[in-house]
Amino acid sequence: MKTGSGYSTYQITLHWLIAVLVLFQLFFGESMTAVVDAIENGQPAAASDQALGSAHYWAGLTILALVLVRLVLRLASGAPAPANWGPRWMQIAAHVSHGLFYVLLLATPAAGLLAFYVGDPWGEIHSLAKPAFVVLIAVHVLAALYHQFWLKDGTLKRMFSSAG
Ligand code: HEM
Ligand code: HEM
Fold first, then answer.
1. With 70 as the cut, is the pLDDT of residue 98 above it?
2. Which residues contact 82 (CB under 8 A, 6 or more apart)?
């Protein structure tokens, strides 16, 4: 569904909150790996890894909850039509990359829970999220900058201020 001319304040807040939490997970996720490895080796994990590992658990579950809220909002009120429809390839690229984000945002915490409570191979599967997110975020940020500075179509601006 495509409605309205911009994102709502809720959608914008959720976008940036989730983005910050995902970056935190990507930067500090290895602490959780260190904790899991320490438990497997029967040794105590470093205090900093324990604290960051615990933060990883709760930040991950928060992402899952926020993404579910975001998807319900999206189903209820739709996503706005693009600021600039552009050529067909651009519509497909936006559609596919946003869809992939939602798939990753749901599958990663789910695999994380399985890694935590079941163990391998879920730990390895969950760890694949890191390169997948890094590539997708790089493409996403480049696309946002391309819209802002090359096409000058207001796409980035509307992820900062709501249409009202
Ligand atoms: C979008 C949310 C999440 C992201 C982006 C994420 C990302 C990561 C990253 C980057 C690592 C380190 C991988 C490595 O060492 O190469 C990791 C490890 C881990 N994460 Fe997450 N995580 C998320 C959610 C969760 C949740 C919700 C849980 C559990 C409740 C969880 C449990 C784990 C576990 C157990 C490991 C260690 C895996 C292993 O090596 O066995 N994660 N995560
Ligand atoms: C780091 C994690 C990030 C994630 C997981 C993420 C995810 C998403 C998703 C799923 C959408 C589609 C929203 C929808 O229509 O339902 C979106 C839109 C958008 N994102 Fe991000 N994003 C991230 C970071 C960023 C960053 C760093 C920027 C800016 C440089 C950015 C700029 C935008 C813009 C401008 C849109 C609107 C696109 C449009 O109007 O069609 N995002 N993002």
1. yes
2. 91, 94, 155
pLDDT single digits (tens) 115-127:
999 988 999 999 9
Rounded CA separation 7/126 (Å)? 31
Enclosing domain of residue 57? 9-159
3-state secondary structure of 121: coil
Site to probe by mutation for ligand 1, drawn from 24, 106, 127, 136 as the one with most ligand atoms within 8 Å of Cβ, is 127
Domain of 140, CATH number, reads 1.20.950
Q: How far apart are CA 91 and CA 71, in angstroms?
A: 20
Which ligand is closest to the CA of 19, given by its number?
A: 2
Residue 99 lies in a domain: yes
Please give the distance, rounded to the nearest whole angstrom, from the Cα atom of residue 37 to the centre of ligand 1. 13
Q: Evaluate if pTM is beyond 0.90.
A: yes
Provide the number of structural domains found in the chain: 1
